[in-house]
């Protein structure tokens, strides 16, 4: 089954134009890489005053983290090899972006970049209530934005 935009929309809360990712390029239990061309679309819902600021790259990375959680949660063989507290933190529960830290933006805007964006996220640590990701958004061989994000898991709002 292709891990394309249709699949992504079925597995994260973001639908329609707010789903910013086009496909999953690679993933495993620890990391994910997703491609997007939506930064060039004039109807991108994050645009303001005809521009898509670089800070919006955080949302691309956050959606990659959500997709990663959905994939790992749905992957019984991968998840079963993890410790219980880790497996619980990556299940079908809903997660919220709680904070971002050490964010560095290497460009001012995204909408003028000609190549596709690649949102990368690597799970650094976590338990049943919080997950820490290191993230990076690239365009070609250039890093556009990078930082760390904390995700808070709310098991009372299961996505299943």
Fraction of helical residues: 10-25%
CATH-derived architecture: Roll
Number of separate domains: 1
Largest sheet: 6 strands, antiparallel
Task: Tell the overall outline.
Answer: globular
In spatial order, strands of the major sheet run 1-2-4-5-6-3
Mean pLDDT: 88
Reading off the top of the CATH hierarchy, the class is best stated as Alpha Beta
The CATH superfamily is: Hotdog Thioesterase
Strand content: 35-45%
H/E series: HEEHHHEEEE
Number of strands: 6
Characterise the protein shown here.
The protein is α+β, with helices and mostly antiparallel strands and 160 residues long. The chain has a single domain, classed as Thiol Ester Dehydrase, Chain A, CATH 3.10.129. It is 22% helix and 35% strand. The protein has 4 helices and 6 strands; from the N terminus they run αββαααββββ. The chain has helices at 5-11, 57-74, 76-80, 84-89, and strands at 23-27, 31-36, 94-105, 117-126, 130-139, 142-154. It has a 6-stranded antiparallel beta sheet with strand order 1-2-4-5-6-3. A hairpin with a 3-residue loop joins β1 (23-27) and β2 (31-36). The radius of gyration is 15 Å and the shape is globular. The relative contact order is 0.20. Mean pLDDT is 88; it is low at 78-91.
List keywords for this structure.
single chain, 160 residues, alpha+beta, Thiol Ester Dehydrase, Chain A, six-stranded antiparallel beta sheet, 4 helices, 6 strands, globular
Topology at a glance:
Layout: H1 5-11, E1 23-27, E2 31-36, H2 57-74, H3 76-80, H4 84-89, E3 94-105, E4 117-126, E5 130-139, E6 142-154
Antiparallel strand pairs: 1-2, 2-4, 3-6, 4-5, 5-6
């Amino acid at each position: 089954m292709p891990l394309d935009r249709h699949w992504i929309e079925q597995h994260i809360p973001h639908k329609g134009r707010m789903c910013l990712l086009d496909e999953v390029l690679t993933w495993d239990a620890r990391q994910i890489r997703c491609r997007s061309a939506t930064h060039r679309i004039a109807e991108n819902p994050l645009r303001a005053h005809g521009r898509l600021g670089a800070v919006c790259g955080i949302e691309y990375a956050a959606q990659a983290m959500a997709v990663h959680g959905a994939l790992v949660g749905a992957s019984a063989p991968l998840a079963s090899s993890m410790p219980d507290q880790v497996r619980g933190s990556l299940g079908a529960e809903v997660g919220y972006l709680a904070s971002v830290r050490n964010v560095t933006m290497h460009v001012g805007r995204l909408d003028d970049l000609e190549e596709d964006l690649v949102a990368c996220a690597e799970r650094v640590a976590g338990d049943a209530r919080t997950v820490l990701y290191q993230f990076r958004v690239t365009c070609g061989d250039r890093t556009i934005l990078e930082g760390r994000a904390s995700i808070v898991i709310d098991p009372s709002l299961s996505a299943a």
